[in-house]
Structures are given as C-alpha cells and as structure tokens.
Amino acid sequence: MKDTVFSPAFGNRPSCLVGRSDVVSAMLAGLEEPPGSRSRATLLLGQRGSGKTVLLWELADRARAKGFVVASPTIAIEDMLDRIVEKIQDDGERYIKEKTAHLTGGNIGALGFSAGLQFSRSTQESKSFHYKLSHLCDALAQQGKGVLVLIDEIQGNDPRVRQLVAAYQELVGKQADIALVMAGLPGAVSATLNDRVLTFLNRASKMSLEPLAPAETDAFFMKAFERLGLHVSSDLRRKAVKATCGSPYLLQLVGHNMVLYSAEDGTVDEDALESALESARNSFENDVCGTTLAALSDKDVCFLSAMSEDPYESRIADVAKRMGVTHDYAQKYRKRLIDSGIIEPARRGIVRFAVPYLADHLRKTSEIISDF
Ligand SMILES: Nc1ncnc2c1ncn2[C@@H]1O[C@H](COP(=O)(O)OP(=O)(O)OP(=O)(O)O)[C@@H](O)[C@H]1O
Ligand SMILES: [Mg+2]
How far is 5 from 13, CA to CA, in rounded Å? Predict the structure, then answer.
C-alpha cells in the first residue's frame, strides 16, 4: 500500500497539521497587534519533533496571506543575516510596483536602493545588516506592508541572534512594522546568563509546543486510516495513539509504519501493529533520543541514567545517591535538565522524563554497556 498521508521526516510539511490551530491563531493574532507590542516577538519552544519547523512554515504562508512580507524560516547559521535580507527582498519585490522608480518620490540613492528592493552596489557592500533591514522596512512601510522574520533552531548565545535582536529592538524603537518569531529547543534560552539577548528572549512572548491531545491524534488517525483504506479496530487504533505519546514526529512514524506493516487488503492486526510500533520506536530513539543525549554533557547523561533506574518517577535524593554526589550538586543538573525540557518536575523533590522513550533508550544503552 502506498502511504499518501504520513511523512516522517524532519521539516516535512505534514498533510494535516494536527492540534496546533490554537498556537497558529495566537501567533497570527500577535501580528495584528501594533508595532512594538510584546506579542510581536515570539519564542516558539518545543522538543525535537514537536513541530517547530513546520509551524514556522505554516506561519509564513498564513502571514503572507495577510499581506506581510515574510523572511521564510532561516536557520541560525553562518550567513543568517544576509539570507534574511535576501528573503525580504525576494518576497517584498512583488509589492514594489515601479521597479526602477523612486520609492519615496525623492532621491532613490538616498535610500540606498538601485532598483525595486535591490540595494545599490555600495550599500550592498558597505552597509550593515541593521541598515539594510531598516531601509527594507521603511520601503515596505510605504507600501503599507509589515515584515515578519522567522528564525529556526536558535541558540540564545549565538552572535548572529544577538545582532538580529539588537536590530529588531532599535527598529521597534522607531515604530517600524516588524515582527519576529524564533523557534528553538526549550534549553535555547537558558544557554547564557546576564546577557542582553537573554533578557530580550525572556521578555518575548513564549509559546511552548505541548504534546498533542490523545483525542486529536485519535481523530486524525481515524480519518487518515479511512482515507488510506487501512482497517484498524478501535482498540488497536487507541493503542497506536498511546504509543505516539503526543509527539507529532511519533505520530508520523507510527502512522507510516502501520501502512508499511498492513496486509495486502489493508488490515492491521495485533502482530502488524506490534511490529509497526517497534519500528517507529526504534526510529524515534535513534533520531530523537540519540540526538538529545549527544548534545548533553557526560554528567547530564549520568543524571538521566540514574533516573532511568526508576520505573516512572525519580526522587532527587535517590538520583544524587546513585550518582555519588551531594543533593545540592544533583539540584544543579536537575535545573539544567528541566530548563532544557528533557525532564519535568512531577512533585516536590520528584522528577520524570519529558522526552518519550528516553528512559527505555537509556536502559537499553546501559544493558549493552554492562553486557560487555
Ligand atoms: N502538528 C503536526 N501534525 C502532524 N504532523 C506534524 C505536526 N508537527 C510536526 N509534524 C511532523 O513531525 C515531524 C517533525 O516536525 P518538525 O521537523 O517541524 O519538528 P521540529 O520541532 O522542528 O524538530 P527539531 O527540533 O528536531 O528540528 C515531521 O515529520 C512533521 O511532518
Ligand atoms: Mg526543526
């Protein structure tokens, strides 16, 4: 059977965006606020596979439809600032009617443009990012257009993010019609301390991508299976929903593997479901759990391994004992891991895993090590 619904790959636009209509509406409502409002600088935080990248692309389309000029999601890497300028130029060009005419009716050279939204050579070569962004905003404001900049995979301590934030703050001071949405892992904001960028990020409006509600995943599975001609009993469908743990990436993996393991007539029985879930879990452990652990320090991993000895939740006191460290020392790691969204507080003195299957993954890894 051909899978025409599920597409488990990072950054892939899903055929249906499940359970995020509130977040999208809130972000679009933020864009309606006057320039400078807090909701025009949004930080979208979520675990790996929670759907940050696809939400940014969705927002790009929806904001464009509302008349915004959008710098589509740019990853915070080397040439980020140049890419933002180019993207605004490309997207905004269609609003500049007279490609070579004077934008202000005044002196075009004074604005630094040569044609449309393209800068003159000297501006292009000698002026800063801030200067270019500011002039693009001015030129587009004359056409009644606001600018939305979307950044993916931000790190709070990235010098380019610093520059972008500084430029944004100055433009906001001038009442420029600009908005900024930045997406990253929950830990992105706690990376540095006492820093101007951090203050800005902390004050920005924050949206966390929470796990999808089981009812929404179930409704989507029901529709999707029907469309694909997949026969799944409601019991097994519920089991599949549970296995997604509310993760959009797992939803795609589980759905896709169910298609792969279905019989020729589209039936998914208990055995087929088991195989599909195991395959989905393996991919998730590899792509998400493995990547998450690889980004942590040895001590962080040690804390998590100590936690994985408990079946569901862990007492910090027990974790500290297993690690052979003081309670205060363990608290430091507890806080860092909570800030990164990898674990969450359950009750006072008790924590649990926030990333699906991470505990299982750690248990398996420690078994492999002890088998050696
Ligand atoms: N709301 C959703 N409904 C259905 N599928 C979704 C949804 N959000 C994301 N997905 C799917 O989940 C997968 C991961 O999405 P995405 O790449 O956006 O995650 P991410 O949060 O950006 O992850 P990372 O932090 O690793 O970059 C993709 O296959 C995507 O199609
Ligand atoms: Mg992403």
Answer: 11
Q: pTM of this prediction?
A: 0.91
Residue 49 Cβ contacting ligand 1 at under 6 Å: yes
Is 246:211 a contact under the CB 8 Å cutoff? yes
Rounded-to-integer distance, Cα 209 and Cα 204, Å? 16
Q: Whose CA is nearest to atom 13 of ligand 1?
A: 249
Cβ 11 under 6 angstroms from ligand 1: yes
pLDDT in tens for each of the 372 residues of the chain?
889 999 999 988 999 999 999 999 999 999 999 988 889 999 999 999 999 999 999 999 999 999 999 999 999 887 999 999 999 999 999 998 655 544 444 444 556 787 789 898 888 889 999 999 999 999 999 999 999 999 999 887 788 888 899 999 999 999 999 999 999 988 877 654 457 777 788 788 889 999 999 999 999 999 999 999 999 999 999 999 999 999 999 999 999 999 999 999 999 999 999 999 999 999 999 999 999 999 899 999 999 999 999 999 999 999 999 999 999 999 999 999 998 889 999 999 999 999 999 999 999 987 665 655
Residues in the chain: 372
Residue of 249, 288, 292 best suited for mutating to test ligand 1, as the one with most atoms within 8 Å of CB: 249
CA 138 to centroid of ligand 1, rounded, Å: 35
Asked whether 10 lines ligand 1 (CB < 6 A), one says yes
